[in-house]
Design a protein that fits this description.
Layout: H1 2-25, H2 29-56, H3 70-80, H4 98-123, H5 136-149, E1 166-167, E2 173-174, H6 176-187, E3 195-204, E4 207-217, E5 222-226, H7 233-241, E6 248-253, E7 256-257, H8 262-266, E8 269-272, H9 284-294, H10 302-313, H11 329-341, E9 347-351, H12 359-372, E10 377-381, H13 385-391, E11 394-399, E12 402-407, H14 409-416, E13 420-426, H15 431-442, E14 448-453, E15 456-461, H16 471-485, E16 487-493, H17 497-506
Parallel strand pairs: 5-10, 5-11, 8-9, 9-10
Antiparallel strand pairs: 1-2, 3-4, 3-6, 6-7, 11-12, 13-15, 13-16, 14-15
Helix pairs in contact: 1-4, 2-3, 3-4, 9-10, 10-11, 11-12, 14-17, 15-16
């Protein structure tokens, strides 16, 4: 019985190696099932023939045992040939006979197939994942030694940033801020910032999803990433987390390259996907324990990290032992955010975290993000322009796979906004007097009528009011004169992120 148990254990090692090898070569479940069964059937028939040759053939033929299924068939053939008078006992295992030889080669074949399968999977990951360099063990060791011996210095080599609009290699005019960001991404010390994206390019067949995209994310900064559907935001996020590899260009996260150090990056990057990826039969605490162990948090500190993550999103007291299937939509989103921040991840990617949530829950999520951005860098993709305006330290707008503009919210409003707007309600009979007052007295001839309806007009005012007037001067003038000119109600608004976004996208 012990010999049979040993035989099946060694047979299992070979089977595991074969599965790893075949799964690395065949990427779909259907192909694995078809080829796997066909391979097993053909190899079994061939192995019986070869095993007979090994058993009764002339000369030393151990090299046949390197064929994965041959040692299994050889051992099985040996067991089947035993009779009551003469058979292998457990004490005979100390000698190197045909049975022990077969067991040894089962282990050797299994280990070799496992190594080859894991290697193929590492350099050719398939549809998802970033392939490593064919010599990645040597390259990784070389880069670590080189990094430890000689730290890259770029401070004294930096060139002044570009002050004017430039033209790229394809002849297209590039915004000066985008040109500065491109140059900064190529010169910045990758260890001094959280994320450096340098000329990222990704094409699916003939469709370009990203076109030489460059961007820098500072430490402890929230970057709002805006763009219409199909702008390339999802592709960019997928590259940053290692789901896909760029066709060209590179990216560094915490100084690690996504091309050959993605394993180190994934230990320090958290992702909150747009659609919650939760298990309905696990509790909140069990979800966080699972991800804490995936991040190699020491067992003694797991409880501390889990409690801290639940406390950060407000799930510690009431919902720690609740199944995820019993949580509301907002609570599920908070759990997803907790998963992304557990383990003190230094970079967190939030993919539309408030989509589909009610205003109250949305505000709660905003508070969580605002609290967490002081401890880590956050890249926030959203279609809510108010959300980006409130939470982001810098905002980047992309369209057609390209970076169109980048800067603080106030800077983008001032540069790309159409100016201030003045809305006035009045008696329809006073329209001419109202137009004269706003155009000549409020703006000194600089205002233009944007739209007019019965008893209502909207005026476009310049970004910088003439005669060095401030906004408070305009407020004071209108309040003091509204009764005389017949103004019933009025409103003054400055440029919004929605206006900036529409102006940028309209240029695409």
């Amino acid at each position: 019985m012990l010999l049979l148990l040993l035989f099946f254990c060694c047979c299992g090692v070979t089977m595991i190696g074969m599965v790893l090898f075949l799964s690395a070569l065949l990427r779909t479940r259907m192909m694995v099932a078809i080829v796997g069964y066909a391979f097993a059937l053909l190899m079994s028939l061939a192995s019986l023939i070869v095993a007979y040759i090994v058993a009764y053939g002339p000369g030393n033929q151990q090299y046949y045992l390197l064929i994965p299924t041959v040692p299994i068939a050889s051992a099985f053939h040996f067991i089947a040939s035993c009779d009551e008078s003469k058979c292998l006992s457990f004490y005979d295992m100390t000698s190197f006979n045909r049975f022990t030889q077969s067991l040894l080669f089962m282990i050797i074949d299994g280990v070799l197939l496992s190594i080859v399968g894991l290697y193929i999977d590492a350099i050719l990951p398939g549809r998802y994942g970033v392939g490593k360099h064919p010599l990645f063990p040597i390259v990784s060791l070389y880069r670590r030694v080189k990094s430890a011996v000689n730290k890259k210095r770029v401070g004294s080599e930096k060139e002044p940033l570009i002050d004017n609009v430039v033209v790229n290699l394809s002849g297209e005019v590039v915004d000066e801020d985008v040109a500065n960001e491109n140059q900064r991404a190529s010169l910045v010390d990758k260890d001094s910032v959280s994320v450096v994206m340098n000329n990222l390019y990704k094409a699916y067949d003939k469709k370009e999803a990203l076109k030489n995209f460059s961007l820098v994310v500072e430490k402890n900064q929230c970057l709002g990433l805006l763009g219409p559907n199909g702008a390339g935001k999802t592709t960019l996020i997928s590259i940053l987390v290692g789901l896909i590899s760029p066709s060209n260009g590179t990216c560094y996260v915490n100084g690690y390259s996504i091309l050959d150090e993605i394993d180190l990056i994934q230990q320090n990057v958290g992702l909150c996907p747009q659609h919650d990826l939760l298990w309905s039969d696990l509790t909140v605490q069990e979800h966080l324990l699972f991800y804490a162990r995936m991040r190699n948090i020491p067992r003694k500190q797991e409880k501390e990290y889990v409690d801290r993550a639940m406390q950060s999103v407000g799930l510690l007291k009431e919902k720690s032992n609740a199944l995820s299937s019993t949580l509301s939509g907002g609570q599920k989103k908070r759990l997803s955010i907790a998963i992304s921040i557990i383990g003190n991840t230094s970079v967190v990617l939030l993919d539309e975290p408030t989509t589909g949530l009610d205003p109250t829950t949305r505000r709660q999520i905003w508070d969580i993000i605002d609290n967490e951005k002081s401890n880590r860098s956050i890249i926030l993709t959203t279609h809510s322009l108010d959300e980006a305006d409130i939470l982001s330290d810098r905002i980047a707008i992309m369209a057609g796979g390209e970076l169109k503009c980048v800067g603080t919210s106030s800077y983008l409003k001032n540069r790309y906004g159409s100016g201030n707007k003045l809305s006035v309600n009045y008696d329809p009979s006073n329209k001419d007097a109202i137009d004269n007052f706003v155009i000549n007295e409020v703006s000194a001839g600089a205002a233009k009528v944007n739209s007019t309806y019965t008893g209502f007009s909207m005026y476009d005012l310049p970004k910088i009011l003439p005669n060095e007037k401030s906004v408070s001067d305009v407020f004071r003038l209108i309040e003091n004169s509204k009764a005389a000119v017949g103004i019933k109600d009025w409103a003054f608004s400055q440029p919004t992120m929605e206006e900036v976004f529409m102006n940028i996208v309209a240029l695409e």
